[in-house]
Amino acid sequence: MRPCVASGLSTLGPRHVHDLPAEVITEAFWFLSFIQVLHAAQVCQRWRDLGIDHPIFWRYITVTSITRGSLEMLRARLGQTDDRPFTLHVDVPGADRLIETKLMELINISLYNVRDLTIHLDGIFFYQLLAVLRNHAPKLQRFHIKLYAPDRWMAQLPITPLIFDSMPGQLEYLRIEDVIFPDSPNIPAFANVRTLVLCMPPDAFTDFPTFLFEYCPLLEVLSITIGTMTLHAPLPPAATAGLARLDHLDVHLSPSSVVDFVAKVPLATIRAVALGGFVDFDTVYDFLEPLRSPFNFTILRNGHDVWTTVESRATRYTRSFVQHTSVYKHYSGDPASNPKANALYDNEDFPAQVEMLTVSLSLWDTMMPYLHNYKIVTVLTLHLDICGDEDHPYRLPRSIYAFPCLSALGFCTRPSLDEVGLVHVHPRDLVDFAGRIAVTGPQCIDLYLPTVGMAVVDRSGLLEQEFHSVTFIEWRGRGY
To answer: What residue stretches are annotated with the F-box domain (predicted)?
Structure first.
């Protein structure tokens, strides 16, 4: 008689959670938060050893409060890095004395192995912090420093030219907020920086920062936020040469400085340029002058800003206008009475040069009255920035705006996928929406859906029946 399965298993003896292989436990810890790993580490000595050696315990370290307990935990986590690169984010406002007596020591300990370092501290600790930052940081790739100060009045404190032991190292990304650069011919530690973000108070003023290209000779991406910038034409040769090496430039200035900036700074060779704030009629067209039609036109909500981007399809050069979302309350009424509207929407010739259009769905009803003349658009991409769950799927807009030449409809979930989460859309809603915007109906439309971030449960195969084709692809930010 053949033994049953149960009797066969009984010969193996009792099974316990402690019999799980270390690899299985370690893999399971990846599904836990840092706090949950701490709780799991209290199960037994074996789980404790696996927990504190897990990357969730030591690889991404955040410090947002200063107590003796939090500092001891920070010391323990730093101790577990064991010569392995990690991320340290310190964001502690206030003037607690433990910052000077304990935290600075731990930041100093971290420098040898830290790969990504963010420090936000009160400005009164600036000179103690500079003394720590003079030490070598051979593995550092990203560095962000920001000072807290009343009314941001301490933006006159210069960073030391001897930072990170004057060694270039691996530092490629640098973000500096409310800290100025020193009057020094060079900063050796910044020699390999390729991305620089400089943020200063809105009432600050400066000449064009030519010195940035001298400190960072390999600079490719530059973002500047400052109040007023004084420009003298022509710019120094070092500034012109540095601008010519840039791939991306992002500038947020006062309105008067924006006009001067576009008029006097050579931007034609830079592939991607973004301007923050309101831009007047003439400046809009001076800014767009390097681009040639046909265009891709994008209107995306990204955090607290809306990016309006014109891209030349031939060269892939882009020019973007960045405005705070609060400005878009003016767009909700009659387009003819909107004092804040971008001058592009008053240009009767521009719609006939746009072949690809991308719009955030949260802006659809607001912006479509400005886009009803875009009759040659062949590809429409919708950015899903509004969430819907499986039981209550997101409903696509009901308003009817027809695109006579439309041949492709796509959906994307970036750049704000992490903020929104999974977006659920009903397949019937997709078909009906295509019927509202495509003169020829969905049968002539190629549908493109993202591989991540969007869920369309189509058990009946409705999409394959109604659309010309259905393709799942990875979104790459330039349409389909």
So the answer is: 14-61
Cβ atoms of residues 133 and 162 within 8 Å:
no
What distance in Å separates the CA atoms of residue 346 and residue 79, rounded to the nearest whole number?
Answer: 61
- Between CA 1 and CA 14 the distance in angstroms is 25
Half-sphere exposure of 345 (CA within 13 A, CB side): 21
Question: What domains are there in the chain, each with its CATH number?
Answer: 17-58 (1.20.1280)
For residue range 211-230, what is the model confidence (pLDDT) as tens digits?
999 999 999 999 999 888 98
**Residues 95 and 122 sit within 8 Å (Cβ to Cβ):** yes
pTM here is 0.84
pLDDT in tens, 398-409: 888 889 999 999
Helix (H) or strand (E) holding 39: helix 34-40
Per-residue b/e over 239-259, b at no fewer than 16 CB within 10 Å?
beebbeebeebbbbbbeebbb
CA distances from 183 to 95, 143, 156, 158, 161 (A): 29, 21, 12, 8, 9
- Three-state DSSP at 239 gives helix
Give ∠ CA 453-456-457 in degrees, rounded to 5: 135
Asked if residue 147 lies in contact with residue 123, where contact means CB atoms within 8 angstroms, the answer is yes
Please state, in angstroms and rounded to a whole number, the distance separating the CA atoms of residues 358 and 21.
Answer: 49
At 203, the amino acid letter reads D
Helices (H), 254-363: 255-264, 281-288
Residue 340 φ/ψ, nearest 5 degrees: -100, 5
> Checking DSSP bridges between strand 228-230 and strand 295-302, what pairing results, if any?
unpaired
